[in-house]
Task: structure prediction
Amino acid sequence: MTPRHRSLVWSATRHLLLLCGAVFILLPFVWMISTASKPQTEIFTKSIHFIPQTFALWDNFATAFGKASLWRFLVNGVVVTASIFVLQVLIALPAAYALAKLRFAGREVLFALVLFCILIPPQATAIPVFLLFHQLGILDSYAALIVPFTISAFGIFLMRQFFKTVPDDLIEAARMDGISEFGIVWRVMLPTAIPALTAFGIFSVVAHWNDYFWPLIVLNSEHLRTPPLGVASFRNEEAGTNYGPLMAAAIVIIAPLVVAFLLAQRRFIEGITLTGIK
Amino acid sequence: MAKIELNGIRKTFDQTAILKGIDLAIEDGEFIALIGPSGCGKSTLLRIIAGLEPQSSGEVRIDGVQVDGIRPSARNLAMVFQSYALYPHLSVFDNIAVPLRMRRHSALARMPLIGRLHPERGRTERGIREDVERVAAQLELAALLKRKPGQLSGGQRQRVAVGRAIVRQPLGFLFDEPLSNLDAKLRVHMRAELAQLHRQLKATFVYVTHDQAEAMTMSSRIAVMIEGNVVQIGTPAEVYENPRDIRVAEFVGSPKINAMPGVIREDRGLEVLGRQLRLGTAAAAGRCTVCVRPERMEIGPGPGTIAGIVTHLEHLGAEAFIHVKVDRIDLPLLARVSPDQQLPEIGSAIHLGFSDNAVRAFDAAGKRIDVAVPARSERVREKALG
Result:
C-alpha cells in the first residue's frame, strides 16, 4: 500500500469511529426532538420512525407551557445558576489570586486543602448540609439552592492555575500605579482571565442548571422548582406520563445551554487572542 | 527629582544571600546603570528601591526620607518592566491614564458604573485626558491611543510603558532591562530615545541591564554588581579603563579582556607567561593576573612578545578579531585589528605584544594592583632620550 492509500484508509476509519460516537451521543437528542414533534397517539406505535406523520411540535410546546409553569421554572433556573456563578466568582477570584500570587505562610497547605475539597462528592455532604439548613430554617428557598455552591473548590483551583501564568510584572506594574490588592483582582486579573472564567462559567452553569439531586432534596414548593425538577413534574401527572409535552419541555430547558455554549465558544477564541501581554 | 540612598541593603531568600550589604548613593537627576551578570542581584535591588520586595536589613531613603515599609505607589517612583507589563485589556490611552486615575479620582469615583455619577469625575477626567495626550504627543503615540497593546509592535509597547511611567511625573524612574525584548536595531534607537528623555526630564534614572553597551552609552555612572556586592561605581570610561576588580574587568568590555597568568617576583618585578615586563609593583610577591584589552594588543614580532597560533578570525566589518592560542592559557587571546590590514591565515604563527600602559594587573584575590615602570628604568629612558 502506498502511503497515500494508507492515510486515506486511516482517515476513513477515523471518521467512521467518530461518526459512530456522534450517532451514539446524538441519538437521544434526535429521539427527543422526534418525540416532541409527535402527537400522543403516534408516540406509542410498534414501529420506530423518526419523522412524525402528524407534526405536533407546536401543540406539545403549547401544552408544556400551559400545563406546568415552565416559564417559572426557567426563571428559577436563571436566578439560581446566575447567583451561584456570580458568588462563585466573587469568592474564587480573590482566593485564587492569593493562592497564586501572594506569599504567605501556609499557602501550600491551603492549596492542598482546596485540591482535597475537589475530591469530596457533593452527595457526601448533602445530609449534613441539609440538617444545617434545617437548623437555620432556610430549607425550601432560593438560599437553600444557592448557598451550598458559592464556594467552588474547582473554581479556585482553575483560576489559580490560570493566574499562575499571568506575569508578575503585570501585578507589580499595577502596584506601582497605585492599584490596591483587591483592585488588582478586579481590574487586572479579572479582565486577563476572561478565557478561564468563560471555561469555568460553562462548567458551573451546566452543572447547576442540570442539577437534579440537590433541588430534589431541599425543595417542596412547586414555585421554586428548577428546570430539571420541572420537567420531572410532567411524569407525575395523574393521567400517566405525557411524553410529547415532556420532550417539548426538555427541548425548552436544554435550549439556553446550547445557545450559551455556542456563544461562549466564540468568546473562548476571542478571549485567547485578547491576552496580548507580551 | 530625588536623591536615592541605599544603606547596608541585605536580602536573603531561604538562607541564600542575594544582596550582601549594598551602599549606594544615587544623586538627584543622575542616570545610573546597575550592571552585572545574571543572578548578581541587580533586579532584586531595583525591586527593593521600588518597594516591591522588602529588604532583609538596611534602609532605603528617597530625598532623605526613609521609605521602608511604604507602599510602592506612595514612594512616587515609576518603573518600566522588561515585559512592558501593559494592561492587555486596556487601550493605550487607558494604560497611560491608569496611574493618574488611581491618584486623582476618589475611591468612589473609580467604582464601575456608579463612579460616573460622581460630581468631580468629569473635571478630573478632562485633566487626565490633557495629560495623557501631552505625553502621547511627546512619545509619538498620539495616533495609537485607541489601540490595544496586542496590536502594537515591541518598540511601540515600550513607548507606552515609558508613557505610563512619565505621565504622573514621579521623583525617579526605575528601568528593569527595558530594551532586552527588542531587536538589535530598535534597541539602538530606543537607547538614544531614553538618553534624550533623561536630558529632557532631568529626573533620576536607575537602569538595570546586563547589556553593557546600554550602560556605557546612556548612563552618567555605572555600578557594577557581582554576586550581591557593588564592586565598582564610576563613569563608564573609569569602569572600562580602570577596573578595580578582575570580575569588573572581565564583565565590562566585549569581547572579554585578555587575562594572562603572571607572577610578582620578590624584587617587585612583573612576569607574564614567563616573560619579564618592564613594569614593577609595590604589591606583595605571588601569583597575579595580567589583563590587556583586545584593542590594546599589538601584532608583530619584537622583544618580549608572546608567540601563538591563529585559531579563529572574526571579521565584523568595522573591526576584526584574531583569536590566538598561546601555551599555558586555556582561552585564546584576542586582538582587535583594523580590517583593512592583511589578516593572518588560520593556523599561522603570530606574535602578540602590548605596551606598558595597556596592562591592568590583579592580585590572586582579584583586586587591582598598581603597576608602573620603575623609577630606575625611567631614568635610563630619560638618558637615552636626552
Q: What stands out?
A: The domain at 257-385 of chain B is CATH 2.40.50.140 (OB fold (Dihydrolipoamide Acetyltransferase, E2P)). Residues 378-386 of chain B have pLDDT under 50 and may be disordered. Chain B has two domains: 4-241, 257-385. The radius of gyration of chain B is 26 Å.
